[in-house]
TrEMBL record:
Keyword NAD: yes
GO molecular function, one term: aldehyde dehydrogenase (NAD+) activity
Domain of life: Eukaryota
Protein name: aldehyde dehydrogenase (NAD(+))
Catalytic residues in the record: E288
Source organism per UniProt: Pycnoporus cinnabarinus (Cinnabar-red polypore)
Length: 542
C-alpha cells in the first residue's frame, strides 16, 4: 500500500517502464487498462479517494499498471462508512425480492461470468500467480456455485413442526440475515468470494467484500461483472459491494454493527483477531483458516494413483492452497519406492510463466512468502531433517522470470514425527512437504489428528477395513476426509470447511446456506383459545 504523497511523487517521476504485453493483454480483456485511477470501492457507484494499492505480478515483479495513474484507490474512512450504510440500505430493499427472482439474477451473473471465464482466469493467474488452468478452474468454481445458488433459491425451505397445542402450527422460517461481509485471502481471489456471494445473494442478503490487498484487480474485475447484472435488473448495486484495502479497512468492516455476519477466510493469526472482534459484539462469524493437511499411504495403495496425487497436492499452486498436502505419512514397507517416484516428479517440474499452458509450477505470491519458505527450510535443517529435494529459491531464471518469487518444491524428512513441534504443527504456506514413517494405521491417524488444524486429509488404500477406520469415529478428525483422493481440489457440492479451532465453519454446498439466513421459529394460532405451552395455567378469569 502506498500513500497519496508517495503517489504524487511517482506521478512527477519520469516513467521508466511500460507494462509488458503479457500483462497488458490480460488487463485489456477485462477493461482494466483505462489509463486512469481504478476506483477500489463499489457501493452502487464506483469511488475511492483514499490510499492507493499497488498490484505486483508475482511472476515478474512488475507493477500491474501502465502508469502511476492506474493504481487502485481505496476508500477514505468516510467512503467506507458510506459503503457500509449503503449495504444496509440495499439489504432493506433486496430482502423483499422473492427468492426465485434472486435466483434469476444469480443465473444472469453466472452467464456473465461464463462469458469472461478465460479472461478472468488469466487475470487470476497474472495477479495471484497460480497456473492458468487453476485460474480458469477458480472462475469455474464461481460459475458452479452460482448454478447451485440458482437451484437453492427455490429450495431454501423451512419446516412445519407439529405443535402440542390444538389449532396451532409451528413454522421454522429462513429469513434473509442482513449484511454479510466477506474478507478473503490472496490465494483464491475469486472463488472464495463466489462461494459466499452465491449463497448470500440467494438468501436475500447484501454482501460487502474486502479482498486481499495484493489482489485488487481480480476483485474489481469480478465486481464490474456482478454490478452490471445488478444494475440491469434494477437492484441496488450495494447488494454486492466492494471495499479494497488492507488491515485497517478489514478492522472497520469487522467492527461495524451494520454487518450481521463476517465470513473470514485467511490465516490463523488474523482469524483469531477477527473471531474475537466479531464475538465481542455478538455478531455471527464464519471462519475458514489455516490447513496443515496430511496424506497417509498404506502398503496396499495403488502408487500409480497415489504418487501423482500427492505430487499435485503438495506442489500445485506452489503449495499455496489451504488444502495443500503438507504432511506425508508413508507405511514403512513402501517408503523407498514411494519417495523415489515422488522425487523424480519433483525434479522434473520446471518453474515458468503461469500464463503459459505448459507451466505446472508458478511463483509464490509475494517476497514475504519467500522469507517464510526460507525460514521453514532453515528450521528443518537446524533440527537435523534431511532435505531430499529442493530447499532453495531458483537462481538464474531467464527474463522476465528472474523478477519473480520462484522457489523449489521441497521434500523434507525430519528426524522423527513430533506433532507438537512447529515443524509439524504449523502451516508453512509454501511448497514444503514433511515425510514421516509409520507401521500401523492407528499411529498415522494419531499423527494426522495431533495438530491444531483440521481442514483436509487423505488416505490411500484398497482395503475396505482401513477405509472404515479412517472415516469412522476413531478416524481422521478433519472436515475433509478423502479416500484415494488427494487433500486438495474440492468440489462445490459438499460443504467445505474444517473441524477444529483453526478451521471452523462451512462454505459452499451441503447445508452451508443455513448459516446465511436468520431462522425464525413462528408459532401460529388458528383456534379460538390461547392455551399456554406445557399446560401452564395463568389466568384469574379461567
Ligand atoms: P491473511 O489472514 O493475511 O488475510 C486474510 C484477509 O484478512 C485479507 O483480506 C486481509 O487484508 C485481512 N486482514 C488482515 N488483518 C486483518 C485484521 N486485523 N482484521 C480484519 N481483516 C484483516 O491471509 P492470506 O495470507 O491472504 O491467505 C493465506 C491464508 O488463508 C492461509 O493460512 C490459508 O490456509 C488460508 N486460507 C484458508 C482457506 C479455507 O477455506 N480454510 C481458503 C483459502 C486460504
Amino acid at each position: 500500500m502506498i500513500t497519496r504523497i508517495t503517489l504524487n511523487t511517482l506521478r512527477r517521476a519520469p516513467l521508466h517502464r511500460s507494462l509488458s504485453s503479457r500483462a497488458s493483454t490480460v488487463l485489456s480483456a477485462l477493461d482494466l487498462h483505462s489509463g486512469r485511477e481504478l476506483a477500489g470501492v463499489y457501493d452502487g457507484e464506483w469511488s475511492g479517494s483514499g490510499e492507493v494499492l499497488q498490484s505486483v505480478c508475482p511472476t515478474t515483479g512488475e507493477v500491474l499498471a501502465r502508469n502511476p495513474d492506474e493504481f487502485v484507490t481505496q476508500a477514505t474512512p468516510a467512503e467506507l462508512r458510506r459503503a457500509l450504510e449503503r449495504s444496509r440500505e440495499a439489504y432493506n430493499v433486496f430482502r423483499d425480492v422473492p427468492a426465485p427472482k434472486r435466483g434469476e439474477i444469480l443465473r444472469q451473473i453466472r452467464e456473465a461470468l461464463a462469458e469472461k471465464r478465460e479472461a478472468l482466469g488469466a487475470l487470476v493467474s497474472l495477479e495471484m500467480g497460480k497456473i492458468r488452468t487453476e485460474g480458469v478452474g477458480e472462475v469455474q468454481e464461481f460459475i458452479d456455485i452460482a448454478d447451485y445458488g440458482v437451484g437453492l433459491s427455490r429450495m431454501m425451505n423451512g419446516r412445519v413442526v407439529a405443535s402440542e397445542r390444538p389449532g396451532h402450527s409451528i413454522l421454522e422460517v429462513p429469513n434473509p440475515l442482513g449484511v454479510v461481509a466477506v474478507l478473503s485471502a490472496f490465494n483464491f481471489p475469486v472463488a472464495v468470494y463466489g462461494w459466499n456471494l452465491a449463497l448470500s445473494l440467494a438468501a436475500g442478503n447484501a454482501t460487502i467484500w474486502k479482498p486481499a490487498p495484493s489482489t485488487p484487480l481480480c476483485s474489481i474485475a469480478v465486481t464490474k461483472i456482478v454490478s452490471t447484472v445488478l444494475e440491469r435488473n434494477g437492484v441496488p448495486g450495494a447488494v454486492a459491494g466492494l471495499v479494497t484495502g488492507g488491515k485497517d479497512v478489514g478492522v472497520t468492516v469487522v467492527d461495524s454493527k451494520l454487518v450481521d455476519m463476517v465470513s473470514f477466510t485467511g490465516s490463523e493469526a488474523v482469524g483469531r483477531q477477527v473471531g474475537q472482534a466479531v464475538q465481542s459484539r455478538f455478531g455471527k462469524v464464519l471462519l475458514e483458516l489455516s490447513g496443515n493437511n496430511a496424506a497417509v499411504v498404506m502398503p496396499d495403495a495403488d502408487l500409480d494413483m497415489a504418487v501423482p496425487s500427492v505430487f499435485f497436492g503438495a506442489v500445485g499452486t506452489a503449495g499455496q492452497r489451504c488444502t495443500t498436502t503438507r504432511r506425508l505419512y508413508l507405511h514403512s514397507s513402501i517408503v523407498q519406492s514411494f519417495l523415489s517416484r515422488l522425487e523424480t516428479l519433483y525434479q522434473s517440474v520446471q518453474p515458468g510463466d503461469p500464463l503459459d499452458p505448459a507451466t505446472l509450477l508458478g511463483p509464490l505470491h509475494t517476497r514475504q512468502a519467500m522469507d517464510v519458505y526460507h525460514s521453514a527450510v532453515e528450521r528443518l535443517l537446524q533440527s537435523g531433517a534431511e532435505i531430499l529435494t529442493g530447499g532453495a529459491a531458483y537462481r538464474d531464471l531467464p527474463k522476465p522470470l528472474d523478477g519473480g518469487n520462484f522457489v523449489m518444491p521441497t521434500i523434507a524428512i525430519p528426524q522423527s514425527v513430533d506433532v507438537t513441534d512447529p515443524i509439524w504443527s504449523t502451516e508453512t504456506f509454501a511448497p514444503v512437504l514433511c515425510v514421516g514413517v509409520f507401521d500401523e494405521l492407528e499411529q498415522a491417524i494419531e499423527w494426522n489428528n495431533g495438530v491444531p488444524q483440521g481442514l483436509s486429509s487423505s488416505l490411500w488404500t484398497r482395503d475396505i477395513r482401513n477405509v472404515g477406520k479412517w472415516i469412522g469415529p476413531a478416524g481422521s478428525d478433519a472436515g475433509i476426509v478423502n479416500v484415494n483422493v488427494g487433500t486438495s481440489g474440492a468440489e462445490i457440492g459438499a460443504a467445505f470447511g474444517g473441524n477444529k479451532p483453526l478451521a471452523l465453519g462451512r462454505e459452499s454446498g451441503g447445508d452451508a446456506w443455513k448459516q446465511y439466513v436468520r431462522w425464525s421459529a413462528c408459532t401460529l394460532n388458528f383456534s379460538n383459545a390461547a392455551p399456554l405451552a406445557q399446560g401452564v395455567q395463568f389466568s384469574n378469569s379461567a
